[in-house]
Structure prediction request, 316 residues.
Amino acid sequence: MMTSLQFSPTEYLQFSRQQWATLRHSVPMTLTEEEIVKLKGINEDLSLEEVAEIYLPLARLLNFYFSANLRRRTVLEQFLGTNSRRIPYIIGIAGSVAVGKSTTARVLQALLSRWPEHRTVELVTTDGFLHPNQVLKQRDLMKKKGFPESYDIRSLVNFLSQVKSGIPRVNAPVYSHLIYDIVPDERKIIYQPDILILEGLNVLQNSSDYNRNPYHVFVSDFVDFSIYVDAPEALLQNWYINRFLKLRQGAFSEPNSYFHHYSQLSKEKSVSIASQLWTAINGRNLKQNILPTRDRASLILEKSTNHAVEIIRLRK
Prediction:
């Protein structure tokens, strides 16, 4: 049913879409087609079939990992004679711009929160830990947004440290894709959930990826289970351009949008600009900083056309 694949530096079990789908077993579908439409990204095809064949088996696997983590913690508490704070289980989701990380995160949040145990599942994106535009401009980093040096590492590490310390109330900054910046005076409050899904470009990056990281730990050290959403670069670039075109007709047309000036461009000019942005920024960041972290993931979802996952790799 499964084959072992050498996928340096660790070994993975490889599953075809059909093989993976059988691992759903009897897990019921808890999402309606209407809910799935609301969960998908602006440029993605997310079907009921995709949720059933890919995400339900994954939710089942994550439930096993979460339950095993609870059992280990209970054993330790019994041994020590303590009753510690509830520590959230952190699931990290990484991958390129336009690959569909956000959709994967939202679908998993919806599925995991509907298990019979009624677990609380929160979702936080690392976009909120980007430096504000004012800081990026001062450091000449606006064209490197999403690169390691564009993040406020101190705040990100501090946030994850508080979450893993079991602090009842932790807050995170909020990022707006509309204004392309951190939202002033707005915070997302996290109240000690059972599961925290952390989604972002840099989820699998560690301290060695940051030249001036003052810490000996980083995001990947706090993550219990990590997922890398993968696709060939040619597809990623095409998805990025198509998303740019849809945003041009949608969000970019809003007067307060940071990219409002793009809304009046012709389709041909928009395609040209999106291609340039991909080559200069997103494609470069993918090759230099994101793709090299793929081998650190617990599980890799490989997509083909229409955002359909065709191959799943699970680390042994």
User: Anything to note?
Assistant: The chain has nine helices and ten strands.
